[in-house]
TrEMBL record:
Keywords: Hydrolase, Thiamine biosynthesis. This is Aminopyrimidine aminohydrolase. Pathway: Cofactor biosynthesis; thiamine diphosphate biosynthesis. It comes from Arsenicicoccus bolidensis. Residues 16-216 form the Thiaminase-2/PQQC domain. InterPro entries: Haem_Oase-like_multi-hlx (IPR016084), TenA_E (IPR026285), Thiaminase-2/PQQC (IPR004305), Thiamine_Salvage_TenA (IPR050967). SUPFAM superfamilies: Heme oxygenase-like.
Amino acid sequence: MTATWSQRMRHATDLDWAAATGHRFVDELLAGTVADDVLAHYLVQDYQFCDAFTALLGQACASAPGLTSRLRFARQLGMFASDEDTYFIDSFDALGVPEAERFEPTLTQATLDFDRVMRDAIESRSYAQVLAVLLVAEKLYLDWAERADRDGMAATRPEHVGWVDLHRGPDFRAWVEWMQAELDANEPSDPRDKDAAERAFTRSVACERAFFDAAYGR
Ligand SMILES: Cc1ncc(CO)c(N)n1
């Protein structure tokens, strides 16, 4: 079997992908040893990431070719507005993150860069470009979270376990696999759109790695 378009994009980013899924932050999260200030900083920045990400999901819903795909994104948007947001609020409470930090933090360069990638995809309105960024964000998180299934997880605090559990399990896996098949089924015939989607994919993987680095780089 020859590799699909999405598999080729994925393999072209092997180095950054492995650095992100094997990152110190993930090691410490799974071990339950991540320092509270590191986790708080990461979650504060990630809440801002989630703002652009929600907009990106909305664009996917708008750019999707038909009702079946559109409803798939609509369901995921609903999950984001409930389970994922609850996790953030509960974790901010547990970690004592003040209001201003929750809603108007100073953004790190890594967050700004990732935000740009997502906003570029939104502005393109290209289904392939939007899906490429979404797929990286979700598949890379599935990959590191499934390390807990393979190796076990020593973490027990809800702020730790909750973040792992949001990114693994049969439903999350099915969502990621659906998106990957959807991207391959919608490989652009326009070479410029295809090229832009490939660049969006690559940039997103580099952003994921830099985002974890930034949790320590203060
Ligand atoms: C930075 C980042 N990438 C991916 C996800 C999950 O999509 C997340 N919550 N944050």
